[in-house]
Amino acid sequence: MTKPMGKPDRIVVALGGNALGNTPEEQIEKVGATAHALLGLIEQGNEIIITHGNGPQVGMIQNAFAEAHETIGTPLMDLPECGAMSQGYIGYHLQQGIGREMHRRYKRWHAATVITQIECDPEDPAFSDPTKPIGPFYSEEQAREIMASNPEMVFTEDSGRGWRRVVASPEPKKIVEVASILNLLDNEFIVIACGGGGIPVVRDYENKGCYRGIAAVIDKDMGGELLAEDCEADVLFLLTAVEHVAINFGTPDQVDLEELTADEAERLADEGHFGKGSMEPKVRAAVKFARSRKGRTCIIGALDKASETMAGLSGTRIIG
Ligand SMILES: Nc1ncnc2c1ncn2[C@@H]1O[C@H](COP(=O)(O)OP(=O)(O)O)[C@@H](O)[C@H]1O
Ligand SMILES: NC(=O)OP(=O)(O)O
């Protein structure tokens, strides 16, 4: 990464929900390894802001409540509440992972998670076209069985990895807690915000100035992009399970890409090279960020190669 002399870069790092593992133990391990790379960025003089996905986790939380409802009658939990719980669960592990690493190096630490709401348009067409995969992977047979007994649930195939439930994923319009996030940044906190894309809310016109949750999961790449613009970031890292964005993904003709202009990336997205609800939103978010201001770059790479990606040795770079 090239950096103008004397000026720190402000970097938003988005960690993919699917790349965070499937259990609390796996998540702690992956977050710990990533914290090491994140602290490397700080030591190079950059400022970082962290966001993360929640697809597997928000589905796991909602499924656990559904199961407990069946067996012991606990209440069912709506998606916004599950999203809020996932922000707390993942933010807590990030605070611990970053805290441990900061304490080891500096004997002090300042990291805080902001439970973040993001305003959406209640008329967004995404509410009638679910695209965001959440929860575990199923076989096609299992998915069809669940859909037959729960007609309100939609499942789809996810990038050759199995079938998953999909929910509405509206466009994020406004970060409600943006002032708190900027205030923490000004006070030199490492901020974890907009987790799981942010809790989707719409304006509550019966209670002026208030919001209410709406059943959806915002894509964290799009939420992270909005966060990066609001924080005046220079670089957006989208860290996931693969090292590169590819064309002909998952076929013998797969070609990994190292650098793309926003125009090239958009053309490939329009041609359907990227998985819907997986790689496509990352590329769209990268294009939006790269075009938002001259000199802005988005890098998509692997969470388990975070240090190499941050050093410019791995990943796909999308430039304006
Ligand atoms: N063209 C592509 N290039 C690379 N990966 C792709 C492509 N299309 C689909 N994918 C899939 O997208 C996944 C990343 O999306 P996802 O799992 O939703 O990310 P996250 O880590 O943010 O949860 C990759 O692990 C890969 O399986
Ligand atoms: N909310 C969200 O985009 O989660 P993933 O990163 O798990 O897809």
What this model shows, in words?
This protein has 320 residues and is α/β, with parallel strands linked by helices. 39% of the residues lie in helices and 24% in strands. The chain has nine helices and 17 strands. The strands form four sheets. It has an eight-stranded mixed β-sheet with strand order 3-9-2-1-12-16-17-15, sandwiched between helices. Helix 1 links the parallel strand 1 and strand 2. Helix 1 packs across helix 3, helix 2 packs across helix 3 and helix 7 runs antiparallel to helix 8. The relative contact order is 0.16. The structure holds adenosine-5'-diphosphate and phosphoric acid mono(formamide)ester (CP). Phosphoric acid mono(formamide)ester binds next to loops. Pfam families: AA_kinase (PF00696). GO terms for molecular function: kinase activity. This is Carbamate kinase.
Entry summary:
This protein is of the alpha/beta class and 320 residues long.
Summary keywords:
320 residues, alpha/beta, eight-stranded mixed beta sheet, 24% strand, globular, disordered N terminus, binds adenosine-5'-diphosphate, binds phosphoric acid mono(formamide)ester, kinase, AceGlu_kinase-like_sf, Asp/Glu/Uridylate_kinase, transferase, Carb_kinase
N→C terminal distance = 15 Å
Spatial ordering of strands, largest sheet: 3-9-2-1-12-16-17-15
Write down the overall mean pLDDT.
94
Count of helices?
9
* N-to-C order of helices and strands: EHEHHEEEHEEEHEEEHEEEEHHEHE
Q: Give the beta-strand count.
A: 17
Q: SS-based structural class?
A: alpha/beta
Helix content: 25-40%
Strand residue content: 15-25%
The hetero molecules present are:
adenosine-5'-diphosphate, phosphoric acid mono(formamide)ester
| Radius of gyration (Å) | 19 Å
* Shape verdict: globular
Q: How can the largest sheet be summarized?
A: 8 strands, mixed
Q: Uncertain segments of ≥5 residues (pLDDT<50)?
A: 1-5
